[in-house]
Design brief:
The structure is a single chain. By secondary structure, the chain is α/β, with parallel strands linked by helices. The protein is 43% helix and 19% strand. The protein has 22 helices and 13 strands. The strands form 3 sheets. A 6-stranded mixed β-sheet has the order 8-9-10-11-12-13. Strands 2-3-4-1-5 form a 5-stranded parallel β-sheet, sandwiched between helices. Strands 6-7 form a two-stranded antiparallel sheet. A hairpin with a 4-residue loop joins strand 9 and strand 10.
């Protein structure tokens, strides 16, 4: 059953409905659901769907020809074309009446070994297909190739697309559609351990418990996710050891270039090169302090895919145990008690998404246009009057660049209610950003609700948001 992607399907339908030629570029990291999206879209439509492989230019042309003929002229399905032009001429002659959708999936596997493909395609778009009833979908997982060779101004195809879709992981709300009967807490954890990646979410059987699904996929030697990280990395990197060491450090919380390089005893340029490659394939992202985005010293590297963070936190230490068939015991004793701690950073990401989604609607008294995080230092005075500096971070900082206002938030994914001290700390740290933005609201996000103190505190500038609220199963409220 196909789930979600409503906006993407609508975008594709708009291009399909256009009179004459149309083209959409779809790209995104592997496992994200690009092919599934296209297959859902082309249902009931006349379609040539070809998935390129790493077999060289000539073999891809041969296989593509076979696919074209099987749709347009099955009686000649075994015929062969010796050039792109001959094949594209055959397609042109068949473009009569019903609209044709031409899909080339994993385009980089073919185009990077066939220098003439894109230029010849451009020629046919300009001279033969502009008025034809044809829609082309070009799709790829190699992000750098798609951005630099297909979408950039240097590409032969530049200016000829009608739309582009960079397919990302599902957000936490859409991910919940895969397990509709789970509790809000279970939906959040499911999102955290899968990273919202379509392929991984589809592996979770909605009729099984969360524990059963995690056990079956991660802690069984036959589980799809047991060795998924190594499989993905081996497809993209020649030096798996270096990349593995870098990801291990980022997953453990080491997020500066200097810190990572020091821990793995490598030179910074060497580490940076691998980090940039990890960013290109969508596994790592560079995070800036939201109020100091031009400050190069305030740069962090974090795992974009929380499944990788889960895997690197729990699987390496249990590899032998899992292969012995005792993974479920390890999960119960070592992993399950630590799930709330693992979910801390995931919950913060969820809260930032929620804040931006609500804030752009003006729900917090400001027109929020960006949401991120803040980190720095603050000057603290002890009970004895001694002053000292300490690290300070704010989980959620969402700003309005139009009127220089902001909302700030703190998140707790714990089995205990948020109390007064959390709000007091947030108010104190909010002064670190109030010099640039006027703080309109203080947001508290909690898995387990709030202490009774908030019922009578009279806090009109504070919004209490439960996990159920974030899934539209409750109603966030102002601290009374």
């Amino acid at each position: 059953m196909f789930i979600g992607r409503t906006k993407e399907l609508q975008s594709l339908e708009e291009v399909y409905a256009k009179k004459g030629f149309g083209m959409t570029i779809i790209y995104g990291r592997r496992r994200i659901g690009k092919s599934s999206l296209i297959r859902e879209f082309v249902k009931g439509k006349k379609t040539i769907f070809y998935t390129a492989t790493k077999v060289g230019a000539g073999r891809n042309l041969e296989l593509f020809s076979r696919q074209v003929l099987s749709v347009l002229d099955p009686a000649y399905a075994d015929a062969r074309f010796t050039s792109h032009e001959a094949l594209f001429d055959a397609i042109t002659q068949k473009l009569q009446g019903e609209k044709l959708v031409l899909v080339i999936d994993e385009l980089p596997y073919w185009a990077e070994k066939d220098e003439g493909l894109l230029s010849i395609m451009q020629k046919y778009i300009d001279t033969q297909w502009a008025e034809k009833n044809l829609m082309i979908i070009l799709c790829g997982s190699a992000l750098s190739f798609m951005e630099n060779k297909i979408l950039s101004e240097k590409s032969p195809l530049f200016g000829r697309r009608d739309s582009q879709i960079k397919l990302e992981a599902f957000n936490y709300k859409d991910a919940a559609l895969f397990v509709p009967d789970y509790s809000a807490e279970e939906k959040a954890i499911c999102y955290g351990v899968t990273g919202g990646v379509a392929k991984y979410l589809a592996l979770f059987n909605a009729e099984k418990t969360l524990d059963e699904n995690i056990n079956n996929q991660f802690f069984s030697p036959n589980g799809y996710l047991f060795d998924e990280t190594r499989n993905l990395l081996s497809q993209k990197f020649s030096d798996i050891t270096l990349v593995n060491n870098i990801i291990e450090q980022i997953a453990s919380g080491e997020n500066t270039l200097n810190g990572i390089a020091t821990k793995i005893r490598e030179k910074e340029p060497t580490v940076l090169y691998s980090i940039e490659k990890l960013m290109e394939v969508g596994l790592v992202e560079r995070r800036k302090c939201i109020t100091e985005e031009n400050n190069k010293k305030k740069t962090q590297y974090v795992l974009k895919d929380s499944m990788f963070k889960f895997w690197y936190r729990f699987i390496p230490n249990a590899y032998s145990v899992i292969e012995m068939g005792q993974g479920s015991l390890y999960y119960e004793r070592a992993v399950k008690p630590a799930l709330h701690a693992f979910m801390g950073s995931v919950f913060e990401d969820m809260a930032r998404h929620y804040t931006l989604e609500m804030g752009v609607q003006g729900r917090f008294g400001a027109f929020i246009t960006r949401a991120g995080t803040y980190w720095g230092t603050e000057l603290i005075e002890s009970a004895g009057g001694k002053k000292f500096w300490q690290a300070a971070d704010i989980d959620v900082v969402a700003v309005s660049d139009t009127d220089k206002t902001a909302v700030v938030g703190e998140c707790k994914f714990k089995n205990e209610p948020v109390d007064r001290s959390i709000l007091e700390t947030l108010r104190r740290r909010a002064t670190l950003v109030s010099g640039k933005y006027k703080v309109e609201k203080y947001l508290l996000f909690s898995l387990s609700g709030f202490s009774d103190w908030f019922e009578t505190a009279g806090l009109g500038d504070t919004v209490l948001i439960s996990l159920a609220d974030m899934y539209d199963q409750g109603q966030n409220r102002l601290g009374k």
